């Protein structure tokens, strides 16, 4: 397998990497024509395995998060609603769907609560292993659902696994830094920690007539959390070099000023060139350069997924970044795997930029960077936290004896295969777009024999501009009950 990767030249020490994957994740389906496709995570996992990265890290299936664990951030009523509603009974919850913003961008689909449990469980257990020094880097590509609010679904996200993971990290770490490189603003995470200095949120995103309509330069936090929310609004077409020129200096100053003891990196790939809902022009290596730079600080690092709606590019980028986490760069030629035909006609790992015009002028970027630099200087150094005993919880016993159970889900409680089959996407639904290359078109035509391609999903950038952001109540940093 050694010919499938090369060591990263500047890598000084090997990191202990924990990688979380649940095979059930590929069986969930948001519905026909919806751009969010959980199958992309299984496509990424197929690349990870066939590149042989399993030899360089530990692979785990996390225990799905329970309702009680989710209510560490979300309201009891909201989580109870998510656990009860199904496609067959949704007609009885019309009022609740409107209240919790479920039904449009966030449809009700079969197994929705199980999907949320898998996503949240991976991020929470990854955070727990980091806190207990079981690994240096934890990866959960099923996570990164950064739009979900305390009492509301938003932007394809129902349960905010990132906030739940950060709450677990805060049990052991005094300060946590959250970095978001998704094309959309990480509004759910920022809102959750808007009033505290124990978590600093840093988001690089498209702003202006674009979902979710938040993340302005002047949004810096309030109260005790003032200047601990950092937003870098970007314009269309940003390139690798331009992104690098703003990302590295800002994150370097954040690290020097805030000095976090743990980092959470949201690696949304809708900032890649050619994404169906994105408007940036990053290549795969330009996106991965952010991962490489954040990793270089040698802080406990939780890497999660996020957006990304051109599946062949999502799986490429996350597989490549998984390799970087383990200290290697994957070779350009994609190895044989169960989704091999989706990477045609080139069958190469790279995601190349287009000739899209970069609307981010040097003058604009310098102005934003100077304002953010001034805000960081106003922090006055890393905030201190009063020391206290860490409460003993059930997850602590589990982490003390990790090998006690090989599979935390009893076999007789698993969903029946016939039920899983009903949630599978049709072959036509796996198509990212109607122009993926001649090989892919011929394959779909051969399988679908005369079926018309699905209607493309309309852009959501202008649909949610009337977003009403409720007033923020102070969010106490509570110990995770996991």
From TrEMBL:
A divalent metal cation binds at residues 182, 184, 270. The active site is at residue 147. InterPro entries: HDAC_I/II, HDACs, His_deacetylse_dom, His_deacetylse_dom_sf, Ureohydrolase_dom_sf. Residues 34-320 form the Histone deacetylase domain. This is Histone deacetylase. Belongs to the histone deacetylase family. HD Type 1 subfamily. GO terms for cellular component: Rpd3L-Expanded complex; Rpd3S complex. It comes from the Eukaryota. It comes from Gloeophyllum trabeum (strain ATCC 11539 / FP-39264 / Madison 617) (Brown rot fungus). Pfam families: Hist_deacetyl. GO terms for biological process: heterochromatin formation. Substrate binds at residues 105, 155, 309. It is found in: Nucleus. Gene3D superfamilies: Histone deacetylase domain (3.40.800.20).
């Amino acid at each position: 397998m050694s010919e499938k990767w090369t060591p990263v030249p500047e890598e000084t020490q090997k990191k202990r990497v924990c990688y979380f994957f649940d095979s059930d994740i590929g069986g969930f389906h948001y519905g026909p024509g919806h751009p969010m496709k959980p199958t992309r995570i299984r496509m990424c996992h197929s690349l990870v395995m066939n590149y042989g990265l399993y030899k360089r890290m530990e692979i785990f299936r996390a225990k799905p998060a329970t309702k009680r664990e989710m209510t560490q951030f979300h309201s009891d009523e909201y989580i109870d609603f998510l656990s009860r509603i199904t496609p067959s009974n949704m007609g009885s919850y019309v009022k609740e769907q409107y209240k919790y913003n479920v039904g449009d961008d966030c449809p009700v689909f079969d197994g929705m609560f199980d999907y949320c449990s898998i996503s949240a469980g991976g991020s929470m257990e990854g955070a727990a292993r980091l806190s207990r020094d079981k690994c240096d880097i934890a990866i959960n590509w099923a996570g990164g659902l950064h739009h979900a609010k305390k009492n509301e679904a938003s932007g394809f996200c129902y349960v905010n696994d990132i906030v739940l993971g950060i709450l677990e990290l805060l049990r052991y770490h005094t300060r946590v830094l959250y970095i978001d490189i998704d094309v959309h603003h990480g509004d759910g995470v920022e809102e959750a920690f808007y009033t505290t200095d124990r978590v600093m949120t840093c988001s690089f995103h498209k702003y202006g007539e674009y979902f979710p309509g938040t993340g302005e330069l002047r949004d810096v936090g309030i109260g005790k959390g003032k200047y601990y929310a950092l937003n870098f609004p970007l314009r269309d077409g940003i390139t690798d070099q331009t992104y690098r020129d703003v990302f590295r200096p800002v994150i370097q100053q954040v690290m020097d000023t805030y000095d976090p003891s743990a980092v959470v990196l949201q690696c949304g790939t809708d900032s890649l060139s050619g994404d169906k809902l994105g408007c940036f022009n990053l290549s795969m290596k330009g996106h991965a350069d952010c991962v490489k730079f954040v990793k270089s600080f040698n802080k406990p690092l939780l890497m999660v997924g996020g957006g990304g709606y051109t599946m062949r590019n999502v799986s490429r980028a996350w597989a490549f970044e998984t390799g970087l986490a383990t200290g290697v760069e994957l070779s350009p030629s994609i190895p044989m795997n169960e989704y091999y035909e989706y990477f045609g006609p080139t069958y190469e790992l790279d995601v190349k930029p287009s000739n899209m015009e970069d609307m981010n002028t040097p003058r604009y970027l310098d102005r934003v960077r100077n304002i953010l630099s001034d805000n960081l200087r106003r922090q006055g150094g890393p905030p201190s936290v009063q020391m206290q005993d860490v409460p003993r919880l059930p997850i602590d016993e589990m982490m003390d004896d990790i090998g006690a159970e090989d599979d935390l889900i009893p076999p007789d409680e698993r969903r029946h295969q016939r039920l899983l089959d009903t949630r599978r996407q049709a072959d036509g639904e796996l198509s990212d777009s109607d122009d993926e290359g001649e090989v892919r078109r011929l394959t779909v035509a051969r399988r679908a024999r005369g079926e018309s391609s699905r209607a493309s999903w309309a852009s959501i950038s202008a649909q949610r501009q009337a977003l009403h952001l409720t007033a923020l109540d102070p969010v106490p940093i509570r110990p995770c009950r996991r």
